[in-house]
């Protein structure tokens, strides 16, 4: 069973940047589409970005032009470069397949505040 471990979160001021990483244990199909998701306090988890095996990407409207998703199939990692961060980006960030499985990692907290 694949498990995901997210890292790279932290506290950052508005306008700052962070790079999140997601490592997986177990075997991930190289053709699997992977995604990043986030859940803000008191809100439902939402999809943020996806990357297909061929490199096609897509983003939710609120992060377009600010976030970049990438993957390294050899290293079994999926990354999320976040720039121009805003307070409403504050959330716990998770990675998973897209569409997601029901099993989630611990996530990594991103807090954007001055």
Short description:
The chain is mainly beta and 114 residues long. The chain has no helices and 10 strands. The termini are far apart.
Description:
- The structure is a single chain.
- The chain is mostly beta strands.
- The chain is 0% helix and 48% strand.
- It has strands at 3-7, 10-12, 18-25, 34-39, 46-51, 57-59, 67-72, 77-82, 91-97, 108-112.
- It has a six-stranded mixed sheet with strand order 2-10-9-4-5-6, with no helix packed on it.
- The protein is globular, with a radius of gyration of 13 Å.
Low-pLDDT runs: none
Sheet with the most strands: spatial strand order? 2-10-9-4-5-6
What is the CA–CA distance across the termini?
A: 40 Å
Count of beta strands = 10
- What is the assembly state of the chains in this entry? single chain
Largest sheet, in brief, is: 6 strands, mixed
Give the structural class. mainly beta
Shape: globular
Strand content: over 45%
Mean pLDDT: 92
What topology emerges from the helices and strands here?
Layout: E1 3-7, E2 10-12, E3 18-25, E4 34-39, E5 46-51, E6 57-59, E7 67-72, E8 77-82, E9 91-97, E10 108-112
Parallel strand pairs: 2-10
Antiparallel strand pairs: 1-3, 3-8, 4-5, 4-9, 5-6, 7-8, 9-10
């Amino acid at each position: 069973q694949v498990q995901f471990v997210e890292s790279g979160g932290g506290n950052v001021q508005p306008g700052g940047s962070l790079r999140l990483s997601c490592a997986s244990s177990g075997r991930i199909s190289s053709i699997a589409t992977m995604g990043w998701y986030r859940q803000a306090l008191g809100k439902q988890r939402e999809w943020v970005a996806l990357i297909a095996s061929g490199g096609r990407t897509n983003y939710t409207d609120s992060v377009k032009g600010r976030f970049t998703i990438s993957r390294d199939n050899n290293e079994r990692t999926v990354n999320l470069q976040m720039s121009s961060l805003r307070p409403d980006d504050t959330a716990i960030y998770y990675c998973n397949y897209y569409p997601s499985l029901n099993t989630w990692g611990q996530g990594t907290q991103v807090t954007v505040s001055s």
